[in-house]
Amino acid sequence: MVSRRSHQKSRTGCSQCKKRRIKCDELRPACSNCVKHSITCDFQTGSPSSASPAHPPKLLKQASSTKSPGSTRSSIRSRPVVSNGLDPGDLHMGDLEVLHQFVTSTCYTTSNRSESHELWRITVPKEGFHHDFLMRGILAIAALHLSHLRPDSAAEYQNIAHSHQDKALSTFQTAMTNMNEMNCHAFFALSSLIVVYAFASPRKPGTLAFTDDSQDSPGEASWLPLIRGVNSILQQVWPWVESGPLRGLLQPGVINTMDVRLPKAASHQLKELAGLCETATGGEEAVAAYRDAVKALQKCYAKIFTRASVECEIGTAFTWPVEVPDKFIQLLNARAPEALVILAHYCVVLHHLDDYWWMKGWAAHVMGNIYNELNASWREWIQWPQETIAQNERCLVWRPLSPDMIPPSHTPVSMNSL
């Protein structure tokens, strides 16, 4: 009869080994058995069952002296080797999961241009490895994407997103005092992601999240001023960006919109808005602001309607917030009915972006807020955009450019990075 080999009992081993009734080698930060079976070890979490051991933790070198050469090699093979010397327990697996989400899925949802897809998938993350604020911005938007795709875990991913976004913005604001040729590409990329994040964040019912107003809930994105601010940053670094690695995110302005014939319904509404401007209250400055806003809206309608294949639909849609005068934004802040009516007609453009997960429902959300702000006498002015959105109609359908619409020289359009 073969006698059973004696061994020293382990009274300070991890709970996982105790449950499985096997000897724990007590290696830190995770014992070999837990590493081998890919389960969380008490030593990693610092649970009470593994605290205050009676004997000092055994190191790998110490343990190898009591094992056979074969068992030592098996133990070493079970642990991944990390180039910087960190134990795998120090890896932030949640962040790696979110980064994987960005490069395999989220990067394809920021644009409808294949050239932009590759830049967001490869070039932007590379920039993020050199600039902490950009990498955190990448992780933030990807975490929000996961919260959209996995509703059961939405709260968890939203917390991850908010944590990274807060840190990204803090570092971003500090670094803005020193924008230069080396970091401008990271500024440009994060500025674009900030806009996406603002739209992707959960919307709160009953709030006007489109103006810079203290009446909105604290922390809720005021997206019109935000888009204008991003464009302001882009203008500062434009010469560097248009010759740098992210220049493919920019689009040329390739269309003369003056003579574009819009669909009958859209054209009629623009004429009605032009007439509204002439009878608007608030003085000459307000009337001029309304006129400029309607002209910018007509241009935006035309760009969407005649969008060329080289243009990004998102960037084209966001030209209107950039081109309206500051006075118009002030009138929106004051809830001037004429300004709200014009904004309601811009919601028709936003509705064309409704297929993007981070824009889904935004046109209807803004339209609902506008409707609640207007009294009955003004609501008839927004009937057309309201019905267009409610019926899910894309009235500014795309059609190919005719040769006479393409000017010989291409003038860059500023806010078109997304």
Task: Sum up the structure in keywords.
418 residues; mainly alpha; two-stranded antiparallel sheet; 20 helices; elongated; disordered C terminus
Using only C-alpha atoms, the radius of gyration works out to 29 Å
Number of strands: 2
Query: Given the helix and strand composition, which structural class is it?
Result: mainly alpha
Low-confidence stretches: 47-86, 212-221, 398-418
- What is the terminal separation in angstroms? 77 Å
Estimate percent helicity.
40-55%
Overall 3D geometry?
elongated
List the helices and strands in order. Answer: HHHHHHHHHHHEHHHHHHHHHE
Strand order of the largest sheet: 1-2
> Largest sheet, if any?
2 strands, antiparallel
Arithmetic mean pLDDT: 77
Count up the helices. 20
Per-chain topology:
Elements: H1 15-20, H2 32-36, H3 42-45, H4 60-64, H5 69-77, H6 93-104, H7 114-128, H8 132-149, H9 154-175, H10 184-200, H11 223-241, E1 252-253, H12 264-278, H13 284-305, H14 313-317, H15 319-323, H16 326-333, H17 337-351, H18 362-373, H19 376-379, H20 383-390, E2 411-412
Antiparallel strand pairs: 1-2
Helix pairs in contact: 6-8, 7-8, 8-9, 8-10, 10-11, 12-13, 12-17, 13-16, 13-17, 17-18, 17-20
